[in-house]
Q: What sequence folds into this?
């Protein structure tokens, strides 16, 4: 029996969804699964900036995707786009619960550089899946699981809260408190292939992260102090492929960052700053020094 919902409850009614950039504040590679995927122990946060998805019911029977924003040309416009793949996956999950997910028209405003270690496509897919989950909470677990099949970073973006993430990215334990730390994101413009970075790893059995403080991090100073002895185990391999990553980290430190490091498999690097004034000045300095680079001033977010 099909439980077609009244129009007002349909998940494709007009909505404006945020797909925030994810930042791996620390990322330790602690093992490898039999299928070749790597086991991680990562502290993940989100930025206030990200892509946006404007959703409305489609005029016809088919899903429609319109791309907009500074990085629109850098992502596939067709069925390969992760947003359309997420929608198809969500429809499959919904149909197993005998629910209809009508055709949607989606305008994706692509503000994050793709293949850059900050979620991008994963955040877009996760925003769509989380929107459907909000419409029907009983589907939350299978939608999150469907997200994992789209990409290892999708479940953490689906949860959308700062978390310590385990497994290949599918298991998350929320962090109690994370400050809205002034942050600058910098990307030199070279896309990085995640499998290439993982393939180049010299070691795959690093120790896990140190324990997180029970009460979380009261301020950016406490966060920077905790991060100091941690690592991104993918950074050295990514720097071999794209040496400008190391330059970005050095420039952020020189511009006054309390802490700077690469996120994910790169090439985006982040700097954490004591206040918005310093982060604004650093963003200006870096944009001037590297006119072709993407530089964004933002803050860490704890909102989903
Ligand atoms: O899941 P996702 O599409 O993001 O992963 C891209 C590739 O990165 C995988 O096919 C795998 O080679 C590598 N990867 C990995 N371990 C992870 C995540 C990704 O080896 N935890």
A:
């Amino acid at each position: 029996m099909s439980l077609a919902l009244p129009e007002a409850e349909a998940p494709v009614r007009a909505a404006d969804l945020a797909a925030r950039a994810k930042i791996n504040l620390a990322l330790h590679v602690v093992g490898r699964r039999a299928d070749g995927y790597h086991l991680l122990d990562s502290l993940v946060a989100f930025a206030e900036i990200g892509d946006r998805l404007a959703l409305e019911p489609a005029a016809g029977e088919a899903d429609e995707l319109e791309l907009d924003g500074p990085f629109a040309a850098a992502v596939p416009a067709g069925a390969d786009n992760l947003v359309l793949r997420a929608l198809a996956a969500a429809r499959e999950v919904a149909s197993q619960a005998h629910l209809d997910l009508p055709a949607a028209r989606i305008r994706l405003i692509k503000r994050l550089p793709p293949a850059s270690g900050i979620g991008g496509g994963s955040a877009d897919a996760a925003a769509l899946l989380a929107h459907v989950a909000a419409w029907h909470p009983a589907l939350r677990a299978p939608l999150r699981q469907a997200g994992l099949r789209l990409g290892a970073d999708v479940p953490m973006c689906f949860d959308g809260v700062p978390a310590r993430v385990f497994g290949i990215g599918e298991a998350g334990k929320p962090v109690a408190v994370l400050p809205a730390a002034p942050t600058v994101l910098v990307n030199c413009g070279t896309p990085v292939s995640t499998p290439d970075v993982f393939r180049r790893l010299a070691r795959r059995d690093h120790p896990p992260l140190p324990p997180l403080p029970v009460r979380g991090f009261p301020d950016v100073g406490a966060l920077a102090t905790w991060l100091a002895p941690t690592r991104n185990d993918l950074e050295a391999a990514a720097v071999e492929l794209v040496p400008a990553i190391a330059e970005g980290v050095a420039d952020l430190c020189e511009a006054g960052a309390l802490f700077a490091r690469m996120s994910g498999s790169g090439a985006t690097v982040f700097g954490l700053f004591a206040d918005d004034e310093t982060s604004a000045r650093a963003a200006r300095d870096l944009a001037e020094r590297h006119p072709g680079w993407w530089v964004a001033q933002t803050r860490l977010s704890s909102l989903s």
